[in-house]
Amino acid sequence: MFKLWITILKDLRILTRDRIGLALMFIMPIVLAIVIASVQNSTFELVNENKIPLLLYNEDNQEVSLTLEDALNKVGMFNIHKPGDIKNSAALKSMVNTKSALVAIDIPPHYSDLILKNANNVSRKALKDLDLPVDSTISYPDSITAITIYYHPVLQESFRKSIDGGLQSALQAVQSKYIVKSLYHHINNENIPDSLENQIVVNQTPVRTIAVSKNQELGIPNATQHNIPAWTIFAMFFIVISLGSSVVREKLNGSIIRLRTLPTHFGIAIISKQLTYILVTFLQAAVIFSIGRWLFPSMGLPALNVPNDIGALIIVTIICGWCAASFAICVGVFANTQEQANGFGAVSIVLMAAIGGLLVPSFAMPASFKYIIQLSPLHWCLEAYYGLFLEGGKLKDILSNIIPLLTITLLLQILSLFGLKRKNLI
What we know:
Shape: elongated
Strand content: under 5%
């Protein structure tokens, strides 16, 4: 035990001299967590809470188009502006083109007349199909001049589709309203009462939004709950820059050969490096979780909700750190230079993060990636953390994620031993 303790102290001293490695392991993930959580939280608020600025040019200004404006306001996702200096659609497009606005809507002339005519014709056709007496002269609906939406190309497709959905909802509500009014008028020869119109058109079945989790007390997950675990894992595996380089350096300067001449087993040196960097990964997780829990609220970001099962959180963190240390040692064993270890280590971590769900959610990946995702240890780390942070699970609930992670870790350990024997280092 004394030999192991002395070896750990040696590795800690070497680590403290690697300032660049420490910066990569602590400062970089903290900055990433803060920046990306802030950006993603702003996006969530823009879509879910804040209103999207929308330029509106109404060339009709009649009853139906004004009702459409009111419907767009009631959708809840638009903040409508009607600049007085817009005299035609060309000026509207110019404002979008110069990024004065990213979204604009042009309501064409005579839009109200066309909607009313369409509603009248639809109601007449419906009454005819029901064999009810109507005017024998039936004119079928004319094609309505389309409302034009102008987008700036910088808007992503998912964002455009959400705007289209809000607009279609408002258009459907307006068209349904006037069709119902026309039907009622043809049947009863009088205008529909406002109370009945509200019951038919406005009254909607309420929708409840519930996040399904093992702990029913959890609320809707926020950007912090998604980003903090992801970038903690990213930080853990980036110890490959420091630990991988350390292994390569000891191979090149002959330290491993000298250790073999001492009255101790080389396995102690390997265990020492693993324990040292598992401690580092644990400190990384503690620092990043603390920032999410206490610093984020002062920055206007949602606070990190720590899982109830602290014991499971500690176990998962240690296993993730062990897997990261095993990967870093494996890279260091097979790399011949520090440049190889640093280059391959950094690129491989980014690739595994990409296919593991850290950069792009796994559910959004193509079906062909279904099995490739499972090869990334970062995927199993993330799923284990999400089982605690997002689903409110306990240790028994995430065993299906821990077991593959332990399997990958053991495979990395075996591969490292094979590499050391192949190079006659043990």
